[in-house]
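Support request from a user on the community tier.

User writes: "When I paste my structure tokens into the form, the page sometimes reloads and wipes my input. The last time it worked, I copied everything first. Here is what I submitted, just in case something in the input itself triggers the reload:"
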């Protein structure tokens, strides 16, 4: 199962609205169930370097079917996934990547957001995911 472009655009619209509400500029990336990019938006003035981070957050969430912040907890020294961020061409192990599910609860993709604090990134990503 994969997210459609229409659904991805709905996620981006909700994430952009939340970013405006909290007065921040974000890069927002949507990947499908195979971790392939479906849609991307870079808000005016958002950091250029955060575009790659947003994509990697979305891919990381989908590769391991959990929010990137959870992977971050498991990748600390002494934990079971220590150094995982060096796999798969580079992963992101801090908040801002969230799974996207359909109404039945099936994973259909992920959203990655970057451009502010990790707390704001996660808030904006979650707002996007909640739009589905």
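"...and here is what came back when it finally went through:"
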């Amino acid at each position: 199962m994969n997210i459609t472009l229409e659904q991805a655009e709905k996620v981006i619209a909700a994430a952009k609205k939340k970013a405006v509400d909290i007065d921040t500029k974000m890069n927002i990336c949507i990947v499908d169930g195979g971790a392939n990019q479906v849609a991307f938006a870079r808000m005016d003035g958002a950091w250029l370097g955060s575009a790659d981070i947003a994509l990697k957050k979305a891919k990381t969430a989908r590769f391991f079917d959990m929010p990137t912040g959870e992977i971050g907890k498991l990748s600390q020294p002494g934990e079971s996934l220590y150094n995982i961020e060096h796999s798969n061409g580079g992963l992101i192990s801090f908040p801002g990547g969230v799974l996207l599910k359909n109404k039945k609860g099936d994973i259909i993709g992920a959203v990655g957001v970057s451009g502010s604090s990790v707390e704001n990134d996660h808030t904006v990503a979650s707002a996007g995911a909640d739009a589905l």
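Agent notes: The reload is a front-end session timeout and is unrelated to the input. Residues 5-130 form a domain with the Beta-Lactamase fold (CATH 3.30.450.150). The chain is about 40% helix and 20% strand. Escalated to web team.
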